[in-house]
Amino acid sequence: MSKNKKKNKKKMSPQTLENIKTGFGTIISNDAVIKSARNMKGPLDLIPIGLGLVAVVLSVLPTLVSRLNVQGSSAVFAAPVGLYDQGVANFVDTLVYDPANDSSREISLTIENGTYKLSTEDREKLLYGEQWYTVSRFSMDSMVPVFEVFFNYEGSNVTDNEFLTRLNEYKNPFSGEARGDDSVKSPLASYLYFGMNTIAFRKIVPGKTTLGLNGRYDKLNGVNFTALAKQLREEKKLDPTNAKYVEEVTKFFTDVMNRSYEPDKMVQTWQYTGIFAGVNFGLVILFGAIIFIMTRGKKNPYRIFTFWETQKMAYWASFTPALLSMAIGFFMTQYAFIFFMFTFGMRMMWMSMRSLRPVAQ
Length: 361
Prior knowledge:
Layout: H1 14-25, H2 30-39, H3 46-68, H4 74-77, H5 84-93, E1 97-98, E2 103-104, E3 110-112, E4 115-117, H6 120-127, E5 133-139, E6 142-151, H7 160-168, E7 190-194, E8 198-203, E9 211-216, H8 225-235, H9 243-294, H10 307-329, H11 336-354
Parallel strand pairs: 6-7
Antiparallel strand pairs: 1-2, 3-4, 5-6, 7-8, 8-9
Helix pairs in contact: 1-2, 2-10, 3-9, 3-10, 3-11, 5-9, 9-10, 9-11, 10-11
């Protein structure tokens, strides 16, 4: 005959229940923060340390997400576009159509092995003997450049940085000489730049701030500008005067811009987020140190607090401000980085004024 053995269940100790209650109480209660920092010791010290680290992560989460969602193309194709869409459409079309002779042709322009590929012969055909490609429009009784495409190559003996610096100072990028009046210090037309290691896009809108984007070829291998031009003109029977043609080219270049910007975006995002994470982490430690210093008075009843205990108070207190700053930060991403400083500073100030007054409670 078998016997059913009842397993004795261990009841949770009153101290453990109290610790759990007090720990959850730190979400809204400053008194619970002080009590937790004082009473929870040993292995339980890992809890406030973990909360402090989680708080730092939460506080920078809106900044991280917003930076990851940045699209490089927004710097160029956000309205107004400064004729950039029409400019790249005209340029792409000339790869398969020769407007001077009104005839078809095929100039191969691709991106392979971390750089652009355009033969010397094709470059000369595309530029018609000029140093760069230009789209001009009739304005005020004269033809005015509105879009330009530049190609740097090894034989030019000009680095990408030097080339772009000269372009942005309105100088001849190959010789460094002024392109016009010495008083003009910035480009007069939007441009696309194919460098040896860099691809750059710059939008010029008269009377507006110019916007630009420098990218890399790292994630552009396989991009074929000629294939796009052939598809639009030969298969879809479109030309740059057609709105659908401009739309398709804009979509293509939007992808190119976003992919070219991706490597730099990731580096900048982690650097930017890391800086604010470091600032917020330092802020938590600083407020813990401030509480310690504030309680050092000879007649202050809180002189019994150790430096480590005041640090734990700051860690316990940081979680709720971080949660609030994260929630607000997703709605106001532009100012997300300051919300934690404000909410955490307010809580620590309130705790020092109400719960840590140098009088008997």
